[in-house]
Write a structure and sequence with these properties.
This protein is an alpha+beta fold. It contains two helices and nine strands, in the order ββαββββββαβ.
């Protein structure tokens, strides 16, 4: 705590998902859905949990409200069970992400997160997709409309 007065940031630890934990965007219960989860910790209030990494990126890359982000965590899907992911939290900014795979998360297409590039590439070999780093994920890759905005039949 002595460092807090010297301008050092205190990085909060990742929190485990508890029964009843809901997604900050849509209220879905995190434990009810497969695929990688995420959490963003701010300089005020409780962290926001997300039932999918796509939602976390949608908030992070297009924040409606500017709060200072202290930490962002995702699950290492090289270790976590895809169908019931628990624990295995890693720094989202150092993770490797697989986009465009055949493996679905809670919101459909997802960004599978991995601590190790080798695990991400193995996942691509099994489920298709392309590997990206955190800073390479663009807002266009994280739209939450499910393609509705581009469907001319609607």
């Amino acid at each position: 705590m002595a460092l807090a007065g010297c301008g050092e940031d205190i990085r909060p630890d990742a929190r485990e998902i508890t029964t009843g934990a809901a997604c900050a965007l849509d209220g879905m219960l995190l434990l009810d859905y497969p695929g990688p989860k995420a959490q963003i910790h701010y300089d005020q209030g409780s962290p926001d949990f997300f039932c999918d990494t796509v939602e976390m990126f949608a908030v992070y890359t297009r924040p409606e409200e500017r709060k200072r982000v202290l930490a962002v965590y995702v699950q290492d899907m090289g270790k976590a069970d895809w169908t019931q992911p628990q624990g295995h939290w890693i720094d989202a900014k150092t993770a490797f992400y697989v986009a465009y795979s055949r493996r679905m998360g809670s919101m459909g297409p997802t960004l599978a997160s991995f601590a190790r590039e080798e695990d991400a590439r193995t996942f691509v070999g099994q489920h298709g997709g392309e590997v990206f780093r955190f800073e390479q994920v663009t807002p266009a890759m994280t739209t939450l409309d499910g393609g509705v905005l581009h469907d001319e039949r609607m």
